[in-house]
Amino acid sequence: MKDFDHLMSVWQEQPKRDQLSVDDVLKQVKRGISGMSSKLFWNITGMGICLAGLLAAMLFFVFNSWVTYAGIIIILITMALYIMMMVRDYRIISKQDVTINPTEYLQSLKEYQKNRNEVYGWLYNLYVVLISTGLLLYFFEVLQSASAAFKTFAYGGYIAFILFCSFYIRSHFVKSEQEKLNLLIDRLVRLQEQFD
Q1: CA proximity to 191, closest of 117, 109, 115, 131
Q2: Which UniProt keywords apply (predicted)?
Q3: Domain boundaries in the chain?
Q4: Distance between CA 119 and CA 110 in Å, rounded?
Q5: Could you give the CA distance from residue 168 to residue 32 in angstroms, rounded to a whole number?
Q6: What angle in degrees, to the nearest 10, is found between the helix axes of 102-118 and 170-195?
Q7: The 3-state secondary structure of the chain, one letter per residue
Q8: Is the pLDDT of residue 168 over 70?
Q9: Cβ proximity of 44 and 89 under 8 Å
Q10: What is the pLDDT of residues 100-130, one digit of tens each?
Q11: Whole-number Cα distances in Å, 113 to 92, 120, 125, 146, 149
Q12: I want to staple 130 with a disulfide (CB 3.0 to 4.6 A). Which of 42, 78, 79, 170 is the partner?
């Protein structure tokens, strides 16, 4: 019986989680989501400008090889698909107000997090493969008259850049975004538990 009493006293002495202020949590969530949606908006805008520039290059420059056109078309299709995915994510996180229905908003945030995990998983690798294939086909004609040393430098630099982006920048970006999302979701879950 002493063990049970001791266990009860230890349990009762545990610090209780602080009660969250509804206004503070909602302001923090709104600020976090606003930052994420703004970042997504500018990513969409930047990718759209690049897409338009590449399309203009394909239409107004004359290339001798069909391989170059095939490379540009692969890049254009890949960029268009990526823009569509970013627009979908933008709609998910900015389509509703957290103050209207926090429970529904929490579900949409979890859906967004799941979609982003999928994007940064195998879809990102597919994106890199398609963009790389398109650029290599494009470089086939563009670097045709270059010296062997310059070709080696260009291809080596490109491969190093892709590896750096894939393994270093991507992992830091994903980790940072997941931490932000987890923090927002945790705050909303704790707020929801307060009222349940």
Answers
A1: 109
A2: Membrane, Transmembrane, Transmembrane helix
A3: 22-31+39-191
A4: 14
A5: 24
A6: 160
A7: CHHHHHHHHHHHHCCCCCCCCHHHHHHHHHHHHHHHHHHHHHHHHHHHHHHHHHHHHHHHCCCCCHHHHHHHHHHHHHHHHHHHHHHHHHHHHHCCCCCCCHHHHHHHHHHHHHHHHHHHHHHHHHHHHHHHHHHHHHHHHHCCCCCHHHHHHHHHHHHHHHHHHHHHHHHHHHHHHHHHHHHHHHHHHHHHHHHC
A8: yes
A9: no
A10: 666 777 777 777 788 777 777 778 888 888 9
A11: 10, 11, 18, 45, 45
A12: 78
Model confidence, pTM: 0.73
Q: pLDDT digit string (tens) for 74-91?
A: 999 999 998 998 898 888
- Of how many residues is the chain composed? 196
Nearest CA among 127, 190, 132 for reference residue 161: 132
Task: Using the structure block, give the residue that is written with the tokens 């976090």.
Answer: 32
Task: Judge whether 185 and 96 are in contact, CB under 8 Å.
Answer: no
